[in-house]
């Protein structure tokens, strides 16, 4: 039986542990550092996700057969390189390959070099504030200002005025962070997630994230407040066309640079009237995409990852269960800028009893014997159903059962998919 280590502490990692637990080849599962929800189904180890050396030491001591990395920070810290240097088996991209997420400038330059479809942009270094302001002055509004580097999904600001764009640019540049200023794209977003080894990959079903803090896609960007999958308005043929347009050339472009990408490539794509445009690439499972998609896959997660690592792609069963997943994230008041914490959480026991509902914890901890909030995204409710309507009804019903002071949810998750439920027509990608 295989010993498994999953790195991370969020709802994404909770769902990875949950799915790995169903594998017939798995013995013990460890999660570092984990959370109270994960602790119910795995052994949580008090090692930070970014403490690469201690994690490798633990993996050696426990004879871990496979480590799966959840969040982006340890990848940027070089966890995969360090584990491999210690002879440890790990699923995730190298530090060099993870630049596709850890450096937005690297990613945009890669898209440029490979002639990949993306928004028109220009990069600016900290000493180029004047040039950045001149550039903004010549561009149309709204305009997007992005910081280089990792920002937990919150490093992009859609400025509605030139003065706002200049203010945001100045804030980033003043603290020494390079920026990208790019055109604002109109359309709808799609998440493409693939398990990759070099230029080969296994595509997951498409999903749609909701990044803005408030209903109607208003407010600041967040790490994601809800997802649904699959997308009922994009057929299987059109979905594969998207992967051919986005994932294939991205992996080839990396290979041409001598970078072998082994791990998760998760691409945010905007479907515009002029076709798909890549918003950004990520080097790990999306959150909350992961916890929405995994319950729809009837295959064995550990076998899937092992087959990808061994490049046995023809051995991977395409085993989707034909159901829909709908995820609602319960966030703290003040998220994403200044989330309140320490609020007692009640009602999980009632919510988990609802048929077709899964609960995955994120920003939670035990304090004085009570489960309390400890972060911006506290937990998520995932509804599984034969239709999107059924899945949405279940996840929202479960969300209504769980309470804490300052609970915030979006009430329009899946609105685009629900709108298409009464139509048979599918959307053409190109």
From TrEMBL:
Q: Which cofactors does the annotated protein need, by name? A: Mg(2+); Mn(2+)
Q: Which residues form the ATP-grasp domain?
A: 108-310
A molecular-function term among this protein's GO annotations? metal ion binding
Catalysed reaction equations from the record: 5-phospho-beta-D-ribosylamine + glycine + ATP = N(1)-(5-phospho-beta-D-ribosyl)glycinamide + ADP + phosphate + H(+)
GO biological-process terms attached to the record: 'de novo' IMP biosynthetic process; purine nucleobase biosynthetic process
Q: In which pathway does it act?
A: Purine metabolism; IMP biosynthesis via de novo pathway; N(1)-(5-phospho-D-ribosyl)glycinamide from 5-phospho-alpha-D-ribose 1-diphosphate: step 2/2
Give EC number(s), comma-separated.
6.3.4.13
Keywords (A to Z) from UniProt: ATP-binding, Ligase, Manganese, Metal-binding, Nucleotide-binding, Purine biosynthesis
The record ties this protein, via NCBIfam families, to: purD
Q: Which family does it belong to?
A: Belongs to the GARS family.
User: What is the protein name for this chain?
Assistant: Phosphoribosylamine--glycine ligase
> Which organism's genome codes for this protein?
Candidatus Blackburnbacteria bacterium RIFCSPLOWO2_01_FULL_40_20
What lineage, starting at the top, does this entry show?
Answer: Bacteria, Candidatus Blackburniibacteriota
């Amino acid at each position: 039986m295989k010993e498994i280590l999953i790195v991370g502490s969020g709802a994404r990692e909770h769902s990875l542990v949950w799915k790995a637990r169903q594998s017939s080849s798995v013995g013990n599962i460890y999660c570092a550092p984990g959370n109270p929800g994960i602790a119910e189904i795995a052994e949580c180890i008090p090692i930070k996700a970014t403490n690469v050396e201690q994690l490798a030491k633990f993996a050696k001591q426990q004879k871990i057969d496979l480590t799966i990395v959840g969040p982006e920070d340890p990848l940027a810290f070089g966890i995969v390189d360090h584990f491999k240097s210690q002879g440890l088996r790990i699923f995730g991209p190298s530090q060099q390959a993870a630049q596709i997420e850890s450096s937005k400038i690297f990613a945009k330059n890669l898209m440029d070099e490979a002639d990949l479809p993306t928004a028109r942009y220009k990069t600016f270094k900290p000493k180029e504030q004047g040039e950045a302001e001149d550039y903004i002055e010549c561009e149309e509004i709204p305009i997007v200002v992005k910081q280089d580097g990792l920002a937990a999904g919150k490093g992009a600001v859609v400025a509605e005025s030139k003065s706002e764009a200049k203010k945001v640019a100045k804030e980033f540049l003043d603290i020494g962070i390079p920026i990208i200023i790019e055109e604002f794209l109109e359309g709808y977003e799609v998440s493409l997630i693939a398990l990759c080894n070099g230029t080969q990959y296994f595509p997951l079903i498409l999903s749609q994230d909701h990044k803005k803090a408030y209903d109607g896609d208003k407010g600041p960007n967040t790490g994601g407040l809800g997802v649904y999958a699959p997308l009922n308005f994009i057929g299987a043929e059109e979905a594969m066309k998207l992967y051919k347009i986005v994932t294939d050339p991205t992996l080839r472009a990396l290979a041409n640079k001598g970078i072998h990408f082994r791990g998760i490539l998760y691409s945010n794509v905007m479907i515009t009237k002029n076709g798909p445009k890549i918003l950004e690439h990520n080097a790990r499972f999306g959150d909350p995409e992961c916890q929405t998609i995994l319950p729809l896959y009837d295959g064995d997660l550990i076998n899937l990852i092992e087959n990808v690592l061994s490049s046995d792609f023809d051995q991977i069963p395409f085993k989707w269960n034909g159901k829909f997943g709908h995820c609602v994230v319960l966030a703290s008041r003040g998220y994403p800028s200044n989330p309140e914490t320490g609020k007692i959480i009640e009602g999980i026991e009632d919510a988990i009893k609802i048929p077709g509902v899964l609960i995955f914890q994120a920003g939670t901890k035990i304090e004085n014997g009570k489960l309390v909030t400890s972060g911006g995204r506290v937990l998520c409710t995932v509804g599984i159903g034969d239709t999107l309507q059924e899945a949405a009804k279940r996840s929202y019903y479960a969300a209504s059962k769980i309470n804490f002071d300052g609970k915030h949810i979006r009430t329009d998750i899946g609105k685009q998919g629900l709108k298409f439920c009464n139509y048979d027509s599918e959307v053409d990608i190109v």
